[in-house]
Design a protein that fits this description.
Oligomer: single chain
Radius of gyration: 16 Å
Distance between the termini: 40 Å
Number of helices: 8
Strand order of the largest sheet: 1-2-3-4-5-6-7
Shape: globular
Amino acid sequence: MSATFSIPAVTWTGPEINEWPLLEALPVSLGGVLRQNNGFIACAGGFHLRGICSMPDWHSLQAAMTGPRAIHRLFPHVRSSDIPFAEDCYGDQFLLRDFKVWHLDAETGTLHNLALSLKEFFGALATRPVDFLGLQPLVSFQEQGHQLAPDQSLLCWPPVSTRQSADGLTVKAVGRNQHLEFLSGVARQMSQAKPGETFEFKLPD
């Protein structure tokens, strides 16, 4: 990408690149970003761009593409050819498919084409991160004196997509990998549930 963007509130950066074959196989737009900075956590914890590394595994793009907890294994609507290059603090995923960015709602497992190029996506992220990513629950969490560690995301309960969420949300920090597996189970049950049906979940520790 030829444009330069100032990504706000970077709190963590990834290690050096150590999987060069994957880098060469990525679209030029994404590869160019990762050559400059091998992934990061930004927007005060609200956004995570995965990097090309083996460890930590929660930061590994390769693991998200082909590992035991690959995004396409956890969420059936994701294709193995999709590139899950990033996620927000709630576990929602951002995928590259046919050079456009798609959004995966991890609670429901549904995919939405944002119809944005990677350049346009990063432009929106740089100019209006709170609105673009819906970071208001994270802001409230931080105003209460809490912070997310790099390997954590924010679990919202009850699920935002349920009617009960209108009565208010409880949020807690959980491990990224554990959270994704939990959300995968939530999405699976929701996809099978009938309208108005009640079901139960065990929250991760």
